[in-house]
Amino acid sequence: MSDPYKVLGVSSNATDDEIKKAYRALVKQYHPDNYADNPLANLAADKMKEINEAYSEIQKLRSGGGSSSGGGSSYSGGNAGSGELGRARQLINAGRAGEAEILLNRIPVGDRTAEWHFLKGVVLYRNGWVQDARTEIEMACRMDPYNNEYRSFQQRMNSTAAQSPYGGYGTQQATCDVCDLCQAMMCLNCLCNGCR
Fold it and tell me: Which of 18, 85, 108, 174 could make a disulfide contact with 166, Cβ separation 3.0–4.6 Å?
């Protein structure tokens, strides 16, 4: 990877706030939603990947984590990284999703990266909030479209949903539509009429 500071357009002496401000401005400029049905979509996606990698690299360097190897880490058992997101990942891997959620919720909205959305999605998924989890995972994939870890998790969620009549997530997320309600009412009517 080239110099991450140059990618964000800041000097290596920039403050954390200046780096965040530069990162946010670039994400806003190159976000994939801005290039939907545009011939420059692939270039914008490549630029977003570069921006996200540069920002992650700077965060690791500044927190004493050293140089990153690039690419998405394996979610289960992978290197948890450092900082608040790394700690949240460790908590999730340890089965302490509630604590991870508290930690994630403390991160200001403006500092929520693709990694934040991914981890939040995992926490929500483990707590049975499947629709909210899907929304967060989709956001992570839009922000960092080439992250294999995010895409893989999204595909597992979608394939599980396709295999189960209840959306693939056990009875916690059972679907209910008008036909189900109508059928239930007919059954109740039959039961009540049989009692007379």
Answer: 174
CATH number of the domain residue 100 falls in: 1.25.40.10
Report pLDDT digits (tens) over 124-182: 988 888 889 999 999 999 888 888 888 888 888 887 765 544 444 333 444 556 666 66
CB 44 within 8 A of CB 101: no
Is the Cα torsion angle 65, 69, 75, 76 positive or negative in sign? negative
Total number of domains constituting the chain: 2
Residue 31 lies in a domain: yes
Residue 124: count of CB within 10 angstroms of its CB:
21
Domain with 150 in it: 83-163
Residues 98 and 157 in one domain: yes
Calpha distance 192→31 (Å, rounded)? 57
- Answer whether 143's CB lies under 8 Å from 114's CB: yes
Whole-model pTM?
0.48
pLDDT 10s digits, 110-119: 888 989 999 9
Tokens of 85: 């997101």
Task: Name the residue type at position 165.
Answer: P
